[in-house]
Amino acid sequence: MTQDHTTGPDATPETPAPWRPSRTVAVVLAGGTGTRLGLGIPKQLLKIAGKPIIEHTLAVFEAAAEIDEIIVLMATGHVADAQQIVDKAGFRKVSKVIEGGDTRNATTRIALDAVGEGDVNILFHDAVRPLVSARIVRECVNALWTYSAVDVAIPSADTIIQVDENECITDIPVRATLRRGQTPQAFRSGTIREAYRRAEGDPNFAATDDCGVVLRYLPGTPIKVIDGSDENIKVTHPVDVHLADKLFQLAAAQAPRLTDHRSYTEELAGRTIVIFGGSYGIGHDLAQLARRYGAQVFPFSRSSTGTHVERAEDVEAALKTAFEATGRIDHVVVTAGILEKGSLTDMDQETMDRVLQVNFVGPVIAARQSLPYLQQTKGQLLLYTSSSYTRGRAQYALYSATKAALVNLTQALADEWAEFGVRVNCINPERTATPMRTKAFGEEPEHTLLAAETVAQSSLDVLISDLTGQVIDVRRAPGEPAPVPAQPTAADQDRLASGVDAG
């Protein structure tokens, strides 16, 4: 068990004997039924960013060095569902998945029995707070060296009013002293057990908050408050689902980056990457970068190999070529796209069909054809959207619409393919210096554009990560050198003239 024994200057030990817990246990409370979400399943089983909410939550505690053991208290009738998630994710710290009680205080008592006797640190956390940070977990555990009860809270941005039974204001507390409570709540085991023991003698006892039990029945016990975070939301209402999904996207804005050439080589050597749209631009730079680290890369495009991503037979042949050459396909990347500017009503049918076929039907075909190969390697499909997916823009409505469709496709396939162990992600680069963009928009100030090499590097980081169901934003870092767009070959000039981008 790794813990920081550092205490603050105002720390006052409550007992002469130093606290020496045998272990630290995270108790994940997953007893909710999802009634307020209007779901047929408990809300903790709802998928966000490609995984069930409870899986995101458990992953935080699994990764925390301060946590030795995890116990899950699940809603009645869904213990097997939770156990399946634990087994599939390979969470080694989860020792028990058991049924919770009918009330919060009954659930806490079951948890205390499951933890057992002895001196133990216990953290109670809502399963539907999947965005709890490692920092919060660490500070809660560290605080238990000095305090026997710890809460997590954030300042209230709103004025809090108190009302009577007629919904009339009776008081407006000073906001500076108010906090909004979150979880985890952390306790020395003896403290929380004693609080509940005393509560048993109260016929009116009904707990909704474990720190509240300590406050009421052990009034002399200081309860330390740790700073929470605005992101540590509780998924309770329908809007929370959308907020949590967006927060996961923000959290994934930067995929984990390895530290050196050797680390990338260890991850990529021997892997097979198929890139549809690899003759120039992002696809070309990604192919070069991956090869540098030992990957076997097969770029396909209309100009270089005669491969049309919107034709199922072409995609099938390309995948077969890569598989027969290497015996595996680890990653499939689709960067091909068309950007045609102009009013929708002025577009001819041929242009509309081409935009829809290449930008959307092509990735759909690539996804369908790729799955059998990616299942074998537990690999990843990587798609590309545009910043215009969040809001359709005049003069390239179809382009924006198809890019929004790819985001939905990414999220849906991440859910569908999770059972196969196949990951699906989507890169969302800001305006990038590629020949296609230059053809469509002309010369632009260099400092406003992202380098294709930067997007390629981020793409590679996503491919070797565990992310799934994510839309990863790639933004130009302050001070980044101005990009120099790669010049297309003579063969690519014809494709540019028709607006087709190889990458």
UniProtKB/TrEMBL annotation:
Pathway: Isoprenoid biosynthesis; isopentenyl diphosphate biosynthesis via DXP pathway; isopentenyl diphosphate from 1-deoxy-D-xylulose 5-phosphate: step 2/6. It is an enzyme of class 2 (transferase). It catalyses: 2-C-methyl-D-erythritol 4-phosphate + CTP + H(+) = 4-CDP-2-C-methyl-D-erythritol + diphosphate. Its EC number is 2.7.7.60. The record marks R36, K43 as: Transition state stabilizer. This is 2-C-methyl-D-erythritol 4-phosphate cytidylyltransferase. GO terms for molecular function: 2-C-methyl-D-erythritol 4-phosphate cytidylyltransferase activity. Catalyzes the formation of 4-diphosphocytidyl-2-C-methyl-D-erythritol from CTP and 2-C-methyl-D-erythritol 4-phosphate (MEP). It comes from Micromonospora purpureochromogenes. Residues 1-21, 477-503 are annotated as: Disordered. Keywords: Isoprene biosynthesis, Nucleotidyltransferase, Transferase. It comes from the Bacteria. Pfam families: adh_short, IspD. The gene is ispD. The keyword Nucleotidyltransferase applies. InterPro entries: CDP-ribitol_syn, IspD, IspD/TarI, IspD/TarI_cytidylyltransf_bact, NAD(P)-bd_dom_sf, Nucleotide-diphossugar_trans, Sc_DH/Rdtase_CS, SDR_fam. The record marks R175, K234 as: Positions MEP for the nucleophilic attack. Gene3D superfamilies: NAD(P)-binding Rossmann-like Domain, Spore Coat Polysaccharide Biosynthesis Protein SpsA, Chain A. Belongs to the IspD/TarI cytidylyltransferase family. IspD subfamily. Belongs to the short-chain dehydrogenases/reductases (SDR) family. The keyword Transferase applies.
